[in-house]
Amino acid sequence: HHQQQQQQQQQRHQHNHQTIQYSSSSPNNNIDNEDTPNYLYYRPQSRPAPQGGPFAYTEPNIRRCANTFLSIRSIGGVDCTNDVYVRSPNRFEYWYIGKIARTDGTVGLEEAVSKCWNMMEEHAVRLRPVELGRDFGNLEIWIARGDSELEMSQAVGGGWDDLEKCALKKMQRFVGEDVDKVSLMEVGFMAEFVTNSGKGFYIIRNEKGQVMQ
């Protein structure tokens, strides 16, 4: 009798597993790549490794980037860091997502951002899934001076110098082959984390990253 129960349980289990497979790979569900049957996504071990190599969005990489950020900053100070903002195209909210540091004697800002782009974009959509999630792949990354959050948030139309100082600079995802030469020790990213109660931090700028008059 006990054996019969076990068999029934097994059959039920198999049946459930199949239902999941068929329902989730039904032809109407075109959200994922055609090549990958959708039901694979239910089994964690079958998911492909995240894209991006050493800057793929994984816990060890995030931790390594944070440590690199701290070590670069401890030597170069705030001057070799920049605040990172992300916006959806055609929106005026620029969301603060963290800070980048680079060994500025050897790596340009554009190369540093391009190197970390994957991790920063992945982090942005996790930090602000509602505001940024649907534009993943098309998000814009903008840069401000390091540790300028307070100044940025209080910027209002003042003198021209102040406005220039509080403008953001747009970055490009691809900036040429020099990026390949940037080593892991030359760029760090410190991701911003917001607790459940945290509202997140964004600033309002026009489409050129300038304070709106």
Describe this structure in words.
- The chain is of the alpha+beta class.
- The chain contains seven helices and six strands, in the order ααββααβααβαββ.
- The protein has helices spanning 2-24, 59-76, 109-127, 129-132, 149-154, 160-165, 178-181; strands at 81-87, 93-102, 140-145, 169-170, 187-191, 202-204.
- Strands 1, 2, 3, 4, 5 and 6 form a six-stranded antiparallel sheet that branches.
- The longest helix has 23 residues, at 2-24.
- The radius of gyration is 22 Å and the shape is globular.
- The model is unreliable at 12-34 and 36-46 (pLDDT under 50).
Distance between the termini: 80 Å
Uncertain regions: pLDDT < 50 for 5+ in a row?
12-34, 36-46
Estimated radius of gyration = 22 Å
Give the overall form. globular
| Order of secondary-structure elements | HHEEHHEHHEHEE
Query: Share of helix among residues?
Result: 25-40%
| Number of strand segments | 6
Sheet having the most strands:
6 strands, antiparallel
- Rounded average pLDDT: 81
Total of DSSP H or I helical runs spanning 4+ residues: 7
Q: What oligomeric state do these chains adopt? A: single chain
Structural class: alpha+beta
Beta-strand residue fraction: 15-25%
